[in-house]
């Protein structure tokens, strides 16, 4: 009886002694990510406008960091100059330390390489991010920049008041750029089960997009990638899987989806050369999940 | 003759459509009674008074650059928060949302978001990650909680705010927030239809 007792005691001690260590070991060593060698589909023409678009990044987690490693690899092949952020740039706390762990440290090689980030604000972002130097918002919640003859409009879709709508229309009315691109957080069109199309935003923005010939719209908020079928001649992309993916979140057989990817994190590389916009969407494993070319409509 | 009649009908239809649209643009003003208009003006005046007060306090702080470090932003926000909290130590719920203003805002929200739209707005607001936000005047809105997007249609018809102030829903409450120091300036309960 005593022997059985001692055997049971030793057995219990072994199990409870090693189990936490096993769990800890699993947590601390990152899962090996199966990577695909970088393979560019973009033309990389001299003088073209080269940039990256990604959203919902700011978690500071392992997955965001792994995706960033893939970005660095691709930058060697495709030297993009700037990045558009679709909002939810920093999740939860926004202390100085959080800005480092959720942004600066993650993208340090890009920042040190002179790549500029242009941020828009999401529902997890404080307005004060507009003062944060690396986000290049110049103290404004919404703003316009021009790169190589392309106009980019950062909008604040969390608070689209009369002031902002008036500003946007006034800017569009005097804009003579060949390409007009808008980027912001909440997608006017989306096949997401979690959120879906933001009708309240679309009702106000789409008429302006049509009236003033906005060509492409990048958004986030949904944690996946989706290329929407052109809507009234405008191309919409959801690129919100920069820090987390919501798996199987794209509604099957959605009439909106041209191409969707919700199995892993992803980011977009874009090149505008003359009347052509090339894009390539890359996952956390380095695989190309979508690519194509959009011709500027006359 | 038939096609001429058809074109005239179309023309009349277009003119009526334009008239309807222009009327909608002033719908807010025309549907408000004189008393409601007065309530709205008084609310907007109180909001501007708060804005002037906080601007005068912020001027005492080192100016925050448009390209600031994270440390500078954090320090500015916390100092500014403390100054306004002290200046408004006696502030209470209803200082801006007086009973008349509260009634008016609830009515505006209900009018704008009756029916299906109201149900969708309610769903979005109640699903948001705002649990744990302390709905209390002069406390900061936690940066760990999301700020639910405000429907543009509602922002057009609510009393207009100075640029430093924001409306935000937290549960069924409508908060007035300072966008730089994150303080809750006032709030309205049972705001959702």
- Distance N terminus to C terminus of chain B? 52 Å
What's the N-to-C terminus distance of chain A?
90 Å
Number of helices of chain B: 7
Write down the Rg of chain A: 22 Å
State the CATH class of the largest domain in chain A: Alpha Beta
User: Helix amount of chain A, in percent?
Assistant: 25-40%
Largest interface: A-B, 34 and 31 residues
Give the neighbour order of strands across the main sheet of chain A.
Answer: 4-5-6-7-9-8-10
Examine the coordinates and then state which fold CATH places here, giving the name of the CATH topology of the largest domain in chain A: Purple Acid Phosphatase, chain A, domain 2
Helix fraction of chain B? 40-55%
Largest β-sheet summary of chain B: 3 strands, antiparallel
Oligomer: heterodimer
How many domains make up the coordinates of chain B?
1
Model description:
The complex is a heterodimer of chains A (298) and B (193). With 298 residues, chain A is of the alpha/beta class. Chain A folds into two domains: 1-30; 33-295, Metallo-dependent phosphatases (Purple Acid Phosphatase, chain A, domain 2). Chain A has six helices and 13 strands. Chain A has helices spanning 2-28, 62-77, 96-104, 108-112, 162-173, 199-211, and strands spanning 49-54, 82-85, 116-119, 143-147, 150-154, 179-183, 216-219, 225-228, 235-239, 257-261, 266-273, 276-283, 288-295. Chain A has a seven-stranded mixed beta sheet, with no helix packed on it. Chain A has a six-stranded mixed beta sheet with strand order 3-2-1-11-12-13. Chain B has 193 residues and is mainly α. Chain B has seven helices and three strands; from the N terminus they run αααααααβββ. In chain B, strands 1-2-3 form a three-stranded antiparallel beta sheet, with no helix packed on it. In chain B, a hairpin with a 5-residue loop joins strand 2 (173-178) and strand 3. The model of chain B is unreliable at 12-29 (pLDDT under 50).
């Amino acid at each position: 009886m005593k022997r059985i007792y001692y055997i049971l005691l030793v057995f219990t001690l072994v199990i409870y002694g090693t189990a936490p260590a096993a769990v800890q070991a699993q947590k601390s060593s990152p899962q090996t990510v199966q990577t695909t060698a970088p393979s560019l589909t973009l033309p990389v023409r001299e003088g073209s406008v080269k940039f990256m678009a990604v959203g919902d990044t700011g978690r500071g987690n392992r997955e965001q960091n792994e995706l960033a490693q893939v970005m660095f690899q691709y930058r060697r092949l495709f030297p993009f100059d700037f990045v558009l952020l679709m909002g939810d740039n920093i999740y939860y706390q926004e202390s100085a330390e959080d800005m480092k762990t959720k942004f600066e440290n993650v993208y340090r090689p890009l920042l040190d390489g002179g790549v500029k980030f242009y941020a828009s604000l999401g529902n997890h972002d404080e307005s004060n991010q507009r003062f944060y130097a690396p986000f290049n918002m110049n103290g404004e919640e919404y703003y316009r920049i021009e790169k190589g003859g392309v106009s980019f409009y950062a909008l604040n879709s969390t608070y689209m008041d009369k002031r902002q709508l008036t500003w946007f229309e006034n800017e569009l009315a005097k804009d003579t750029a060949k390409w007009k691109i808008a980027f912001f957080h909440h997608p006017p069109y989306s096949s997401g089960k979690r959120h879906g199309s933001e009708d309240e935003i679309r009702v106000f923005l789409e008429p302006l997009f049509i009236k003033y010939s906005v060509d492409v719209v990048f958004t986030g908020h949904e944690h996946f990638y989706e290329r929407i079928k052109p809507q009234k001649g405008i191309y919409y992309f959801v690129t919100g899987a920069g820090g987390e993916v919501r798996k199987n979140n794209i509604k099957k057989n959605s009439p909106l989806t041209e191409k969707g990817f919700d199995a892993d994190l992803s980011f977009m590389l874009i090149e505008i050369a003359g009347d052509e916009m090339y894009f390539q969407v890359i996952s956390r494993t380095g695989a190309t999940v979508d690519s194509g070319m959009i011709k500027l409509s006359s | 003759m038939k096609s001429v009649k058809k074109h005239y009908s179309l023309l009349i239809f277009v003119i009526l459509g334009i008239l309807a649209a222009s009327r909608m643009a002033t719908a807010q003003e025309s549907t408000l009674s004189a008393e409601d208009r007065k309530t709205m003006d008084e609310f907007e005046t109180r909001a501007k008074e708060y804005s002037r007060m906080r601007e005068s306090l912020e001027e005492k702080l080192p100016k925050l650059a448009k390209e600031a470090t994270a440390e500078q932003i954090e320090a500015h926000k916390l100092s500014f928060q403390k100054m306004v909290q002290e200046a408004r130590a006696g502030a209470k719920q209803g200082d801006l949302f007086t009973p008349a203003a509260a009634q008016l805002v609830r009515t505006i929200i209900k009018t704008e978001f009756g029916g299906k739209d109201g149900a969708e707005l309610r769903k979005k607001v109640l699903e948001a990650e705002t649990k744990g936000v302390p709905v209390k005047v002069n406390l900061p809105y936690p940066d760990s909680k999301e700020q639910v997007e405000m429907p543009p249609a509602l922002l057009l018809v609510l009393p207009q705010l100075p640029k430093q102030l924001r409306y935000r829903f937290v549960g069924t409450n409508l908060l007035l927030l300072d966008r730089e120091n994150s303080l809750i300036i006032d709030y309205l309960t049972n705001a959702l239809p």
